[in-house]
């Protein structure tokens, strides 16, 4: 199968509306989306397009996410990745407005793909075999280091190794069993909030707000530094049949082109560059017909190593491209749309 590229166009934000941004993206129905601006006029095709009016539930039901959960239960490696520029709605799509208000939990209608998938996974596991165990792990890649977000204390880098039987895997990664939605959501929150892990954000990052985004939520410029955090859920019936469902909130794609930043920031920008460029490179090589394919350089970045199985080999991938409809985001929007249409040609053999 091919990855199902799904597109989500978020509504114009209040700020965008107030300053009079034009809406340049229009859904035409049947998976087609049209971009029209002064010197641009292009149509792109997707498996599904969700526009500003689409609810979180509509995205869950219409993107094939439910089927993906079932496939993970059947033992396949399934991956969902959200990509697009900072502020395009990646985190909102995956997690909803998680942690935006500390006191009030998000309204059920706003829950993202992750919480909905967890619910579905738990329902499935209850109705299937009784010896089935669900466990979760939560990682981020920061400056080309893989860090465990569930281990207590300051993050430390874990080695990413390769073995013939397992492919690439993270050594000593913490994996926590869960049996309820509350349990898995609290793991998600724990991983998403550095404070909850008991260390001071200012010590480890000069710009705490960006650290915030580095684990997957926030807005504005914050997401730019984010390394792609992953939540990997493992559902296993017996050792020979272990399905995984992996969610990847990619770093803001706009950093790829940014140059001229200095010091620490530039190290971060470079490693994000490296990850996203490597991912784009692997995707374009995978998109070639099987006979013409050369070696796929998964080893070029931590991100592509982690995603090797889901991208190329035996995995099933759902890609959610996120864009803003605003005229001000036009060039990033076009680059996201091109990136996504390229991924459409990749095929895998699960
Ligand atoms: P990203 O993770 O891509 O940087 P966010 O998910 O943080 O972007 O979204 C940026 C802002 O837009 C947030 O304030 C978020 O609540 C809002 N937003 C994103 N998508 C939607 C949507 N579909 N409906 C309403 N608000 C949205
Ligand atoms: Mg984000």
From TrEMBL:
GO terms for cellular component: microtubule; microtubule associated complex. Transmembrane segments: none annotated. Signal peptide: none annotated. SUPFAM superfamilies: P-loop containing nucleoside triphosphate hydrolases. It comes from the Eukaryota. Pfam families: Kinesin. Residues 2-346 form the Kinesin motor domain. Gene3D superfamilies: Kinesin motor domain. Coiled coil: none annotated. GO terms for biological process: microtubule-based movement; mitotic spindle organization; spindle elongation. This is Kinesin-like protein. It comes from Nesospiza acunhae. The lineage of its organism: Eukaryota, Metazoa, Chordata, Craniata, Vertebrata.
